């Protein structure tokens, strides 16, 4: 019996929320690691993180950091990925990138393992992780796309503040305390840190995630539109999105309207979803069973419920999709991809 192949692995952005989850999952999944490098900014270099009972010193991410590294998982922002992914590829490293830097590059596979893992072998050193809100939606829609075909998707998202980083979580919690104490909060981060105008997130809903583009949509909404078409390999697919930030810490929720190309039976739709890998069906209105962000937090699966035929279109249905945005929406999807890379390279 041959020995298991071991890999030198790097996590870039190791101190961030997603980077920490990636490191935890690599440990829990017993990923075949020979050596693990934890890379971050110069500000975090020298700190220590625990991995499988031992402490690893965090190093500053530099071009030379990838010498000898087989697989690198990036989650340190688009600018870092644009600067360092090409350098890592020069060292023969296969990169799994969590940012939007390469997602729409036609030569870069955009992968959700349950949806289009067959595309993974097309990579040229980079495999892109889709946007968190896109991942959970296409994960849930893939069984329906394969069985009936899909012509149109209308999605409204209700996204957790953790998607905007740890500082946004702190801001929401601080504002909530201030409102409950009868004080008026001074927003500093949301909806977009780099824009001059800020809005309160506590006890509120902000219909803006990322900056607006000329067509009136936000970058987040355009990511969902364009990435969905690329992942499903269907440029004719009609997709529109409205993305909203709500005062929830972890877990994105989505209301999705789907027009199918063929007639369907709602019970068959439920069976397809219940049998799909990584999907948890929670759909029993009589018992008030449906997906909740509080229940999805900390879980790797995508949860689906509130499935019903649309009243105005007999070939359309409505559904509710929830997933932890830091896990299936980011870290878990990336680790799944890394596991497929490891299997390919055995």
Structure description:
The strands form 3 sheets. The chain has a 6-stranded parallel sheet with strand order 5-2-1-6-7-8, with helices on both faces. The chain has helices spanning 17-28, 78-90, 113-116, 132-148, 166-180, 219-232, 266-275, 293-296, 327-344; strands spanning 7-12, 33-40, 48-51, 54-57, 59-60, 71-74, 94-97, 126-128, 150-159, 238-245, 252-260, 279-281, 302-309, 316-323. Helix 3 links the parallel strand 7 (94-97) and strand 8 (126-128). The relative contact order is 0.15. The protein is built from 9 helices and 14 strands. With 346 residues, it is α/β, with parallel strands linked by helices.
Helix percent reads 25-40%
| C-alpha termini separation | 13 Å
The average pLDDT score comes to 97
Sketch the topology as an H/E string, one letter per element.
Answer: EHEEEEEHEHEHEHHEEHEHEEH
For the biggest sheet, the summary is: 6 strands, parallel
Q: From the helix content, strand content and strand pairing, which structural class follows?
A: alpha/beta
What's the shape? globular
Low-confidence stretches: none
Key terms:
346 residues, alpha/beta, six-stranded parallel sheet, six-stranded mixed sheet, 14 strands
Short note summarizing the structure:
The protein is of the alpha/beta class.
